[in-house]
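Researcher: We're reviewing a set of sequences before deciding which ones to prioritize for further study. For each one, I'd like a predicted 3D structure that I can look through quickly. This is AraC family transcriptional regulator. If possible, include the structure in token form so it fits the rest of the review sheet.
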Amino acid sequence: MKYFFDVGTKKGIRTTTQNTHPDGMVHPHRIMKVHDILYCISGSMEVWQDGIPYEMNADDVLFLRAGAEHYGKKPCEPGTTLYVIHVLSSPNDIALEDSEPDPQGTLVRIEPLIHCQDDAGIKSLFRELLCAYWGKSTPIKKEKLSLLMNLILIRLSEASRKISKEEDLAEKCIGVINAHSDSILSPSELAKNLLVSERTLRNAFVAVFGQTPYNYQRYIKMKRAASVMKEHPEMPLKEIAGSVGYNDEFYFSKTFKKIHGMSPSAYREKIINGDIAPAKSIRDMYEGSFQVGQYSDYNVLESKGC
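Model: Here's the predicted structure for AraC family transcriptional regulator, in token form for your review sheet.
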């Protein structure tokens, strides 16, 4: 299951405190009507939710959902200190199966356990909300608390979505490929640019995008070649090939046909006859978030009516 929380509505704070457990304590067994959000300032604590154990350490956040059963089985580390926020749930908060598409709008996904060691701002927001809650009343106190709470939820969602090392390496590889639009980098050259082994790069890229960096590079260059051809159908094929790093026109044509299902000459003929859709700009193609794994059959002919 995955859980989404609405940050587009006002939030009611039931209470917020800073608790220290000098002798250690077992988290109580309960089902609450409010979300119970714990920020571990120091120490460690294990809490079970939905039958799954989660262990918080310093600068971790545990999100215990309203209506979910949660409990502890062992005492926390003596001296464990927590920020605690009890916030009213929204009618729009939802749970979805992992296979269902993510909802649109102002719902953000938050994991039960979020590691915040790399984002000191989240801890500051917890502290600011606590100070605002216990501070003097003002005409806009409730609005301020609601805004701070929604900001905390947004930041927790962002921390939940922190990309893996594999995703980071794969995205950097795409950046290297795009920076060398007029040349073809070998697998070893790609790996050297990123200071990793070929095997490490290949495994990370395949895990994220479903194919090798070299195949991605070939695919994106053939997409770019088709875009150039659509924008400038009069340009000689040799020049188009050179613009994407291919000095061998025969090899370029062979690769183009494998990707587009026809030779460059046949593709150009379809452009002239009006059977190929207008080109996207090369800038849009490169700046867009282009997930090659979506195109495993390499059938990228952009014909009218397709």
